[in-house]
Amino acid sequence: MVVDRKSLTWWERSYLPAIAGGFRVTWRHFANTVFRRKSVTMQYPEEKWVMPEGYRGAPYLVSDVEGHTKCVSCQLCEFICPPKAILITPPGPEGMAADRPNAEKMPREFEINMLRCIFCGLCQEVCPEEAIFLQKDYSLTGLTRGEMIYNKEKLLKLGGVDTGVQKWKQKLDEAREQEVFPVLGA
Amino acid sequence: MPAIATAAPATSVPPPVETVTVKVNGRTVVVPKTMPDWQGKPQLTTMLQAARLGGVEIPHYCYHDKLPVVGNCRMCLVEFGTPVMNSATRKPVLNEDGTPKIARSVLPYEPGTPRGAITCATPISPGMEIYADSPATKQMREAVLEFLLINHPLDCPICDQAGECKLQEYSVQHGQATSEFVETKVHKPKAVDLGPRIMLDDERCILCTRCIRFTKDIAGDDALGIVNRGSYNSVAAYPGRKFDNNYSLNTVDICPVGALTSKDFRFKMRVWFLKETRSLCTSCGTGCNIVIGSREDTIHRFEPRDNAAVNSSWMCDSGRLNYKWIGRPDRLRDVGVRGERSTWSAALRELHAALAQAPMGSVAIIAGARQTTEELYLLKRLAERFGAATDSVPRTGAADGFLVAADRNCNTQGARLTGIWSGTMGAQIPRIAEGIRTGKVRTLLVFGEDVTRYGIGEELLASLETLVVSDILPSATTRAAHYLLPGCAAAEKRGTFVNVKGRLQKFLKAVEAPGDARPEWEFLSDLVEGGVSRKVPATLEGVFNQMVREIPAFSGLEWARIGDTGAAVPL
After folding, report:
1. Which of B190, B191, B263 is the closest to A93 by Cβ?
2. Choices 3.30.360.10, 3.30.70.1150, 3.30.70.3270, 3.40.50.2300: CATH for A59-161
3. What is the ipTM of this complex?
4. CA–CA dist B415, B238 (Å, integer)
5. Structure pTM?
6. CA of A54, closest CA in chain B: separation in Å?
């Protein structure tokens, strides 16, 4: 595509309209601060911007409304993560049972290295359980590198509760409504 | 594309093979009239086999090369056509252009509707045309897959099979994007404890009966069956019995879905993270071909690898689960010189000097028959330099008549062919013990054995001038060693083994050895190089090729030309 560049008129080339425009902005802020007592600075970090809807901040794990971990340790986020920031330790054969009924699996450990994370959101997009969401946090600090590796406990605490669907509970309720039939040898 | 994998090696003059000409997706393919079935007996070639020979893989669940054909999953349905015959002259009717006229298969009571045939169980006929990608075939496939998925729980994020699941693969390749099923799914038992090593999820099962056929016809233990009727059909073990034969984990491999899963591998690692390395099982003399699944130097599982000359597609559970010791925390990881931690260069330099002092006949070598052929060859060369007596330790158990051999060393024949032992294995050990007692043997090299358990006690070891021990795990022998050289498990190095039937097979490295441990052949070639005028090549390929030149049984072999399934050597 070729963009037609409009050539400047002699009046525009004189810079005078641009200078006037600049003064107008300066004067507006001056007037707002001095005469209308409106503040233009923000007391960061005590005050923070309200992030717009869809903002991609740090990814955290969420719990369902009953407080159970939603993550089932499928490791798709670990697989897709471009900077390899996610490290999941699956429960393994003798690992602890999941804290919710019907879904048998949940991560033993779930670590996100926030120094590596690029907030791309692929983990949220790939998650089949809606268990990880990019939230509004953008300013993460720590005194050591180790502190910046967030573990499962911390991620769940920061992530809060997701009111979305409880897939496995739904399946369990469905199963419970059915007649029970015996399976030999079970 | 596997062609006739189980065909016997060609003799000098192959007998003329009767062939049939068919068309697969419009391409003419000439196939043998009969092909070996699961038992190797010739049977009429099926449409599935013919399509495979024509380069078209027809999707299937219940069919398996090594199992009897049952044809119950219906996934391999395809539309086909046969030449129209003139009933009077018994000759094919021709089109105007001279090509034979083909009648597409249709329902007898509804001639407008194509009728499919299950390719796994339908033999081909001359002139048959197989339409593996026709619209009717695709529709049939979609419909079958939809039915198979009706009661499937869709719990892929939890299921261990995800990533190597035929249900997932075919759903992507041949399925529909959405389900039309609005009714409630039938819920069946989950996490059923089928046996000590097997977990069953009945909801995921598509009732292909591969597991039932395997355990009945291959393992010879009729432990499984299908119970209940209709959509409540479920696989279960015989009442009051556990599915616990020594081959049960093969059903996990052949299960096309996640119904049967290994308890050992349960929730351990997603399969797409696993690096797959072609290796060999070291638990007995059979030398089953395996694939090691590892991630970041942790071994997660062994799986059998096809080799018609050794293990077909199977392996025993005991061999499969015998990998955990490789990652044991007490593995030997440091070079030791008289109990002090040392380095390879310092220890080998000192060891060179010590060995240089040893007079002829004062050295003995006990080399485990679990070392690789290359290592045993280097040890034999070292022994020749000192006129040393060499031997291995026999290790036997009960053979089961299928895959487990009585010989529990994985390289007994390799040790014999390299000259480590002859006559009776282990016969030299009492003589070596006597030699140590009388003071004749002053230097002992032990590779991969705890000799204190085989007649050379700790007090005898203590009386030696020099005791060189290489091993993987600590033992009474390694504790007595003057020179402790940490070695590698087979999964951590490359090499070859010769199995009980005389098949030389190579294996590749899957994971790194812990700490300072090095493959034995590496430091053995250093040791041999110091004393023997002939140069030892620096690479394993070189050592192997040199060994081949010196040992008549191996003549004609070359590292690069031993394929994945090995080569037969005369015993």
Report:
1. B263
2. 3.30.70.3270
3. 0.85
4. 45
5. 0.88
6. 26
